[in-house]
Amino acid sequence: FPPELIRNFCIVAHVDHGKSTLADRILEITGTIKPGSHDNQVLDRLEVERERGITVKAQTASLFYELDGKTYLLNLIDTPGHVDFNYEVARSLAACQGVVLLVDANQGVQAQTLATFYSAFEADKTIIPALNKIDLKHANPDAVAAQMKKALDIEPSEVLRISAKLGTGVPDLLRAIVHRIPPPVGNVNKPFRGLVFDSWFDKRRGVVTLVAVVDGQLKKEDKISFVSSDKVYEVKDIGLMRPDKVSAEKLYAGQVGYIMCGMKTTKEAQIGDTVSHKSSPVPPILPIRPAKQMHPEEKSKAKPAASDVVAAYIRQRRHPAWTSFFLSRRHVTNSHFGLSHFNFNVDGHNYHVLRTGCFPFLKYHCTKRPYEDLSWDNRLMRFLKILNLGLPMLAYGLAASFLIKHEERVFAGVYPEDQSQNESLRGSLDKLMLNDSSVSVTMEQSAALGQGWRLGFLGLLHMEVFLQRLEYEHGATCIATIPSVPYRAKFKFEKQIKEFRTEVLTVVNPQSIPEASVVSEFSEPWVMGTILTPSEYMGEILAICMERRAQQKNATFLDNTRVLMQFHMPLSEVIVDFFDILKSKTSGYASFDYEDAGYRPCTLVKQFPVAIQATVGGKIIAREDLKQLRKDVVAQKIYSHGGRDKGRAQKLLNRQKEGKARMRMVETFRYHTTVLLKF
Ligand code: GTP
Questions:
Q1: Does residue 135 line the site of ligand 1, with CB under 6 A?
Q2: Sorting pLDDT into bands at 50, 70 and 90, what band is 98?
Q3: Phi and psi for 630 in degrees, rounded to 5?
Q4: Prior bond to 243 cis, omega within 30?
Q5: Is 306 in the pocket of ligand 1 (CB under 6 A)?
Q6: Average pLDDT in the 236-262 region?
Q7: What SS3 string covers 91-141?
Q8: Of 3, 82, 441, 443, which is the most exposed, with the fewest CB atoms less than 10 Å away?
Q9: Which protein residue has the closest C-alpha to ligand 1 atom 23?
Q10: Closest residue by CA, ligand 1 atom 5
Q11: What share of the chain is helix, strand, coil (3-state, %, to 5)?
Q12: Which residue in 91, 257, 285, 254 sits closest to 182, CA to CA?
C-alpha cells in the first residue's frame, strides 16, 4: 500500500458517546466482520471492558475500504473516554493523522469532549466532528452543533450527523475520513523506522508490539533493534490487526501493524521507543506531528508568535518572581504553548510555565522556579539522556507532551494475600505493566502486610481497573491499601536536605511522611476541574465543590441550558468519591474532567483515630474506632532477630498474619457498611 492510500485515525469522545459502537459499524460496513457475527463492541476485548461497558485500552483495527475505484487501508484506533485513560488517547494520537470527534446529539458537549478535542487540536491533527445518536427521540442535533460552535469554534456545516447504532451517515463519515484526513507522510524507500505505540503480553506467543511505520519497510527475519536498548532481535512474525492478528509478508511506511520478535522479558518493549533495522540505525522518532500547510490568507492574518507575546508578558511582570497571562487559540497552534508545563528562556533567564486553565481558557502561570522541582522532569531528562541529543526546544516540548500524560496522581500499596505469592504477583505486575506503562512502581514493606509494592495510577478508576485486570488476566489477587495523593514536604534544616539530597521531598506513602518538626511546609496537589452541566444544577454543584475546599474560577453559558464551570480544588478531594456524588446529585447529567494545577500548602497529620459508623435513616446502628498505629515493634523485632531465632521470628510472622486477617475484617466491615447505607 503506498502511503497515499492509507489513513490512520482515532475515534475520540466523552464516555458513552458511542466510540466502540461506531468502530463496530465501520468494521461491518467495510466487510471486516460480518454483521451480527460478533458481540457488540468488538474492540472492547478485555474482560473488565466487557464487564464495565467501558473502553480502558485503545485498540487497533486495520480495514480495507473501496472508494472511487481505489482500495484504501484504514487504520482505526478506538480510544477510551474516561479522564483516567487520557494517556491512551495521547499515545494513539501520536500514531494518527486525524481524529473523528463524536458528540452525543442528546447529551451535548461534555467535559471530555473538550479535553479530547483539545488534545487533538494541540497535536495538530485533522478533526472530523460528528454528532452521534441522531436516532434518539430526544436528540437535538442543531442545539448541540451550536454548542460545538460556541465551545470549540467548529462550524456547524462541518459537523456530520450519524447514528452509530443504526449505521445512518456512517458511509458519509468514511468518505470524509478519506477526503479530509491527510495520508501519512512516509517514504517506503528510506531506511525502516517505526514508533512503538503499544505492547502487551500474549500468553501463548510472548511480547507483541504495535508499531506505526514511519519510513521504509520491514519483513520477516529482518534484524531489528530499538533505540532504548542495544539488543538485536530477529522478526518472527509481522502483520495487521484485522482486528485479530493476521500475518503479512511485509509492513510498509504509513501502516500500523504488530511485530513479534521473541522478546523474553516484558520490559524490553518500551512504549514510545523507536525501532529500526540493525544495519541502519535511525534517530529516535518523537510523537509524529505532520507539518500542516497554512493557508496563505491565514498567514497574513497571523498574530505575533506566541513566544513573542509571552516574552513581552514576562518583561512587563509586576512581581519579580511570577506572572500570569492568557493566550488565544491562534497562538497555541504549532507551538509548545499548548503543553501543560514547559521551560521558557527570556533574556537569559529560565522560567517555568504552567498551564492552569483548560480550553477554551488558556491561562498560563509563569515562575522562576527551577524545573528540577518538577517530578515529571526527571523522567524527561532520563528520556533525553537515552536520546543522547541536544534536542531543540520544540522537540523538548513534544517529548514533554508525550510524557506529561504519564504523571501518576493516585498511589496505593499492593500486597499479595500471602507472602508465598509474592513472586507470582511480581510476575503478573511486570506483565500487566508492559501493557499499561502509565503505572509506576516502587518496593514497599509493611509490618502488617509484609513485602509489597507502591503503585502510582492516573486516577481512581484507573487503579480499580488495573487491579481487576491483575485478577482477570493474570489470576493474581492482592490486597490494596486506601489510595492517597503525592504530598510534598519542604525541609527546614540542612541535615535532612543532605540526607534526602533534596529540599522538597515528594511523599507517596503515608508511612514515609517526615516528622512535622523538621518540615517547614507540607503541600498537596491541586487540580483545575471542568464541569459541564445543565444550568439548573449549578447551585447544587457549587455546594458540593465548596464542601471540598474548591475555589470557583469561571462559569460560562454554552447556551440557554448548559453551563461550563471551572474550579480549583485539592486532588485529594477529587479522588475519593467526588465523581460519584456529582453524578448522583445531578441525576448523571454533569460531566467532569480535571488537569493538574500545581501544589499548594496544606496541613498534614500523620496518625489519627478513625471512627467508622453505619447509619440507617440518620440513626447510628454500629460503630468501630480504629486507633492510630503504634510504634512498629513487630517489624523491628523480626529484623533484629535476623535468621538466628527462627522460632521467635515465626511467632511474630504468625502474629502478622493475624494482623492481615484483621485488615480483611475491616474491609468486610466497610463492605457491609456500604450495603447497609444503600439499604
Ligand atoms: P467508552 O468506551 O466507555 O468511552 O464508551 P463508548 O464511547 O465506546 O460508547 P459505546 O460505543 O460503548 O456506547 C455507549 C452506549 O450508547 C451503548 O449502549 C450503545 O449501544 C449506545 N449507542 C452508541 N451509538 C448509538 C446510536 O447511534 N444510537 C443509539 N440510540 N445508541 C447508541
A1: yes
A2: very high
A3: -90, 180
A4: yes
A5: no
A6: 87
A7: HHHHCCCEEEEEEECCCCCCHHHHHHHHHHHHCCCEEEEEEECCCCCCCCH
A8: 443
A9: 18
A10: 16
A11: 35, 30, 35
A12: 254
